[in-house]
Structure formats: structure tokens, C-alpha cells
């Protein structure tokens, strides 16, 4: 392995407590206080905490994949419509029949990996800006969806609904799914050659190429990871809603929300610095805020404004600390 890749791996393995985790704890304590004083319900009740986890699961899974694309200096705006494609196609193929579940999983996974591969090719070989390339791919997916489906399509198998509502002992299966994706993403970045190359390519793509790293393959691989996590999110939402519809992904704003969670979690948009654990802290902050706003009775428009200020404030803190380090 090249010296650059080895250094990138050591940097990824270095244990530190990012500021985002302090912000997460502070957000939870403030939410608990505000709900206790002015809201309705018990913010630390088991049902509320499970609600936070459920809200974090869908966004958190796709945000893990988005972390990979941003770490290599790219991004993916097509994930929201890929989530819709996955949910619609899975429920349409299943038609409530348990025997059709494997076929549905194979088809939507193949679609997702193909979309990720094409996104990577557009970014690396066609040299199209990632924002434009993935936005264009998202528009293509939206057009295909709207031309073929107008409402809920088909139904997932009752057994498949366990993905959203099942329990393994006392532990909800969505929590297990969420934790598994997070652990896998963190392990890949910290302990594999591909993860080390992701950091190296994002840190300096030209130098990575000179060091023998096939940068284009790493970027394509990162986009395929993002698409795969979007497929997992689509399957989870289809299981939760018992069917799929074209608006599931866009209504959740999973494209912009996943990017915001990654950036709030401390991953630099230019690439090369950050990680999955910070992203998950950002996702949990968003979930806590959503539950807090609901229990305080805050309207949806005011909620979006407040979330926007929080995102700007969090990124401003990182920018200020970065200037301090450089200075």
C-alpha cells in the first residue's frame, strides 16, 4: 500500500471525540428541558426515544452512503428518487406475495448499483460536475417514475413488514438495521484498503493518482455505496408504509437532508476529512429536533426555518474552528 494511503488509514483510525457529539448531547438536553416546560408528553419516555430512532433510521442509512461520496469530493442528489424507485419497484414486484420477495430484492439492488455506477462514470469519465450529473440522474428517475406510477403501487409481503415493525427480542429490527449499516460503513472506512483510498482520493485526487491509487474506481465505488444505502432506505420505507409511491423519497428530502447531516456531522464538502460516526450524530440531531418540534406544537414552516438556522450555525462552528487551527 502506498505511503499516502497508509497515512490516510492512520488518520481514519485515530480516535477522537468530535464536537458534534457534544452538540448532540446539548441538543438532547435542551429538547428535554423545553418539552418538559412547554410541550406535551415525556421526552425521555421509551416510546419517544423509539420514535427518535425510527425517524433517524431512514435518513441515517442513506446518509452513511452519502458520507462516502462527500469524502471523495463528490455528492449524490439522485438518492431521493432512487429511494422512490426502490420502494415502488419492490412493492410492485412483491404484490404481497412472500415468494416474490427475493426477486424484488435482486431487481431493486441491481437498479441501485447500476444508478450508482452510472453516476460514478458521469463524474469520473465524462468529467461532469457531481451536482449536475446526479441531479440529472435524479430527474431521469423522476420522469420514469411519474410516467409509470401515479399512486401507491402493489404491496409488500406481510413478512417483509418485519423490517420496519419486527422485534428481535426486546430490540426493534429497524434499530438493528440502522446499527448494522453504521457499523459496516465505519468499519469499511477505518479498516479496509478501499476506506483508506476514499480518504486519500478526497484529500488530494492528483496525489492519490501519482501514488498508484485508481482514483476513478474509488469515486465510482463511493457512488455505488451511496446508491446501495438509498436502496436499503427505500426498502425500509416500503416496509414501513406497506407499499411504495413516487413521492416517498422527494417528500422526505433525503437528498439534501443526507448532505446536510453529513456536513453537520463534520465531514468536509471538499472531501478527505470526516466519517460515518459524525454523520450519525448529525442525523440524530435532526431526529431529536423533529420530535421536539412536534411535541412543542411548532408548525412545519417554522420547523424548516429553525432547522436551516441550526445547520448554518453548526457549519459556522466548524469553519471557525478550522480557521483557528490554521491560524
Explain what this protein looks like in three dimensions:
With 327 residues, the chain is mostly helical. The protein has a single domain (3-326), classed as ABC transporter involved in vitamin B12 uptake, BtuC, CATH 1.10.3470. Helices cover 76% and strands 1% of the residues. The protein is built from 15 helices and 2 strands. The chain has helices at residues 3-13, 19-38, 46-71, 79-94, 101-124, 130-148, 162-165, 173-191, 193-203, 205-210, 215-241, 248-252, 254-264, 276-296, 300-326; strands spanning 167-168, 171-172. Strands 1-2 form a two-stranded antiparallel sheet. Strand 1 (167-168) and strand 2 form a beta hairpin. Helix 3 packs parallel to helix 8 and helix 4 (79-94) runs parallel beside helix 6. The longest helix has 27 residues, at 215-241. The two termini are 33 Å apart. 48% of the residues are buried. The model has no long low-confidence stretch (mean pLDDT 89).
Give short descriptive properties of this protein.
single chain, 327 residues, mainly alpha, ABC transporter involved in vitamin B12 uptake, BtuC, two-stranded antiparallel sheet, 15 helices, globular
Amino acid at each position: 500500500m502506498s505511503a499516502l494511503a497508509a497515512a490516510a488509514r492512520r488518520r481514519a483510525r485515530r480516535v477522537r471525540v468530535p464536537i458534534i457529539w457534544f452538540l448532540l448531547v446539548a441538543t438532547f438536553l435542551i429538547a428535554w428541558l423545553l418539552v418538559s416546560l412547554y410541550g406535551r408528553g415525556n421526552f425521555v419516555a421509551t416510546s419517544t426515544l423509539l420514535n427518535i430512532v425510527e425517524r433517524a433510521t431512514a435518513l441515517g442509512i442513506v446518509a452513511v452512503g452519502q458520507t462516502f461520496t462527500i469524502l471523495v469530493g463528490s455528492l449524490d442528489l439522485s438518492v431521493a428518487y432512487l429511494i422512490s424507485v426502490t420502494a415502488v419497484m419492490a412493492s410492485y414486484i412483491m404484490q404481497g406475495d412472500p415468494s416474490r420477495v427475493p426477486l424484488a430484492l435482486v431487481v431493486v439492488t441491481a437498479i441501485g448499483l447500476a444508478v450508482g455506477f452510472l453516476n460514478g462514470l458521469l463524474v469520473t469519465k465524462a468529467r461532469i460536475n457531481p451536482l449536475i450529473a446526479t441531479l440529472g440522474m435524479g430527474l431521469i428517475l423522476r420522469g420514469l417514475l411519474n410516467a409509470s406510477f401515479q399512486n401507491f403501487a402493489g404491496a409488500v409481503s406481510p413478512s417483509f413488514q418485519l423490517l420496519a415493525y419486527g422485534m428481535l427480542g426486546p430490540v426493534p429490527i429497524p434499530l438493528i438495521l440502522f446499527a448494522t449499516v453504521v457499523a459496516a460503513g465505519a468499519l469499511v472506512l477505518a479498516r479496509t484498503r478501499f476506506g483508506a483510498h476514499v480518504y486519500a482520493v478526497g484529500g488530494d485526487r492528483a496525489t492519490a493518482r501519482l501514488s498508484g491509487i485508481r482514483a476513478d474506481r474509488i469515486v465510482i465505488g463511493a457512488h455505488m455505496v451511496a446508491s446501495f444505502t438509498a436502496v436499503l432506505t427505500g426498502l425500509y420505507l416500503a416496509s414501513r408504509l406497506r407499499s411504495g409511491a413516487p413521492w416517498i423519497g422527494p417528500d422526505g428530502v433525503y437528498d439534501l437532508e443526507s448532505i446536510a447531516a453529513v456536513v453537520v456531522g463534520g465531514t468536509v464538502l471538499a472531501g478527505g476529512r470526516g466519517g460515518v460516526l459524525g454523520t450519525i450524530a448529525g442525523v440524530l440531531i435532526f431526529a431529536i429536533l423533529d420530535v421536539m418540534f412536534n411535541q412543542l406544537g411548532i408548525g412545519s414552516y417554522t420547523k424548516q426555518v429553525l432547522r436551516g438556522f441550526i445547520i448554518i450555525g453548526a457549519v459556522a462552528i466548524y469553519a471557525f474552528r478550522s480557521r483557528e487551527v490554521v491560524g
